[in-house]
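Holo prediction. Input below; ligand is iron/sulfur cluster.
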Amino acid sequence: MTSLPRYPSEKKLGLVIDLDTCVGCQACVVNCKEWNTGGYPAPLSDIDAYGAAPQGAWLNRVHAFEVEPKDGNPQIVHFPKSCLHCEDAACVTVCPTGASYKRQADGIVLVDEDRCMGCGLCAWACPYGAREMDPGVGVMKKCTLCIDRIYNEALSEEERQPACVRTCPTRARHFGDLADPDSDISKLVAARGGMDLMPEMGYRPTNKYLPPRARREGRTGEAPRALEPANPEGGFLAWLDRLLSD
Amino acid sequence: MHPALSVIAFTNLSGAGYGLLFLLSLGSLLQFSWGQDRLVLGIGIALALGLIALGLLASTQHLRRPERAWRAFSQWRSSWLSREGVLAVFTFLPAGLLFLTRPLLDSAGWFPLACALLAAVGAAATVFATAMIYASLKTVRQWYQPKVPLLYLLMGLATGGPFLALLLSFKVGGSGASYVAAGLVALTWLVKRGYWHDIDRASPAATLESATGLGRIGKVRLLEPPHTGENYLLTEMGYRVARRHAAKLRLIAQGLGLAAVVMLLIAASIGPGWGHFIFALPAASAALAAAAAERWLFFAEATHSVSLYYGKAA
Ligand code: SF4
Ligand code: SF4
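Structure of the complex:
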């Protein structure tokens, strides 16, 4: 049923992404593709993968932005983006077939691939570009929050996290229950001023983004220290330079 | 947004079909003289249902898994696309019964009247549901507009109207119908101009600053997209080709749809006997062509909020 759950879900599983620590290495992008092309939404196909114009479905992509403060140097911000598992997920309510749904138990938004007719309307309804049509199978693909990992008892306890979270070398991605104010990630959001993307759209995303930390006092716009001259004049170094140049 | 041919054909053909069906049902319900004419009603309803069926067929071309299209009737509680499907199929019932009872059996009484009423309501409701698929998407500011449902309804009448004038040109000489059709066409393009005025001035649905949350630091620009090639999001929602020519295309659509159609319809109503048909036929075709241009622009000019993440305006 593509109506949203009547009550807010008991749990709100989601991600918290730290824009301060992400270095844009794309490890989460690759591990997401790797896990999911074999997991729940498999295959996650590509067309012309080794050709001149490769194209394919990915559930997580990392953009890079430059942000320029009024005073001070521009900053680069690496920006991972995947489904934000919104509370008012219009991607779910527009779906005519019942393929898209939001789970009451944990708030995860999923696509039942055996029902999807590939109309693409849900991708139009997502403000964030979190849904992509699989070019091979012709059904809609999106982040599942790795439901086949997080509840998977065949995996060791520490492996029961989304692939992107598990793989991130700078620990810029965190997973947990955002409905529980005492969970580690809720505390992180509170401490770091976690924010919603495009709040004006009214989708109430579950995933939160931690803004880059402010640059340290007195270090903004400071010119780099000059190097010592290559041709020293006078003194021991000049003598050494002359000696070695001969 | 990518202007898919299948969707343009679908919304226009079915729009014209429902417009014609609506006018015929109304004529039958209000017992206009032409609304009692078995030939006009018979050919007209068959033509309308043919256009609708053609449109619905085209719409399945848009699906990547058309064999699952039947599932789209299930989610009418939440989805306008599903509601549209249900209404479209439902409307065939009273329309078919109207065809059976009036032109075929020539029966009188309340039953054909009830069918005509239901067919008219069904036709209007279906076109409204089609429009709401677009008008309910907050992500596309050019679609999330109060005039969009009105425009879809009017465009249905403005393409169905000339077809009615064409039908009547054989019979009654059609003067009245041509004038009414010309009026509907003019009204439609007037509202369309208002819509263009609105979307040219509407503020963007979001900004890159709000999309990234980085606005509190300063001005944001895209440094590097997430990949070097194309992807589904870009081909489907990042369509930009038409925007360069939007102003010219708007003029062409209006020249064809407004000026040409209205003149042809007026010529059809004042011309000599055979002239009714000679002018009504190109009027109906031009109306359909202009509606296709209009619908193409409706997609091509629309921008989606995801474009922000790729450094484009939304
Ligand atoms: S991010 Fe997009 S796909 Fe995910 S729940 Fe929100 S609207 Fe739906
Ligand atoms: S593409 Fe599939 S999941 Fe998306 S709206 Fe259409 S049927 Fe539903």
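Chain A has one domain: 13-47+54-216+225-245. That is the main takeaway for now.
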